[in-house]
Amino acid sequence: MMLVTNANAPTHSANSPHSPLVTVLFGGEDSVDVGMVRIEVPAGAKMPAHRHNGSDVILTPLSGAVLITKDETTVDLGAGDALLILKDETVALSNPHQEPAELIVAAGPATFISTVRSWPLVSNASATPA
Q: In terms of Cα–Cα distance, which of 24, 21, 22 is closest to 2?
């Protein structure tokens, strides 16, 4: 088993204005085939159209809501909902709402998490075996 606590998980930013903060929970630097991140999306934050670097991802908001846009389709994803984005799909994320949103994102394989780990570090620590 491996335990990651909020205190020892590295947080990254995509280094663009109003970018969400992404805390890496698992993946991207070990032999684990899946990864997980927690994303904090402030009100007004946006991520432009992007792919997830060869990973299928499942987004699940824990609180708040975000808009996910693919081509001409937009989904308002709220707390408790889940959205599967396939590795070849290009999507954009935004939070036009008044409240921040917090999401859990699972990725398999964990190649997307490797990309996140290359973003500028906001805080740093490492996972501890349990």
A: 24
What CATH number did the domain enclosing 32 receive?
A: 2.60.120.10
Neighbours of 41 (CB within 10 A): 26
Main-chain phi, psi angles of 7, to 5 degrees: -70, -25
**How many C-beta atoms lie closer than 10 Å to residue 32's C-beta?**
15
The range of the structural domain enclosing residue 33 comes to 19-120
Encode pLDDT of 72-91 as tens digits: 999 999 999 999 999 999 99
Q: Say whether pTM exceeds 0.90.
A: no
Tally of structural domains, the chain: 1
For residue 129, tell me if it sits in a domain.
no
Look at residue 112 and give its three-state secondary structure.
Answer: helix
Q: Which residue, chain included where needed, has tokens 């205190």?
A: 7
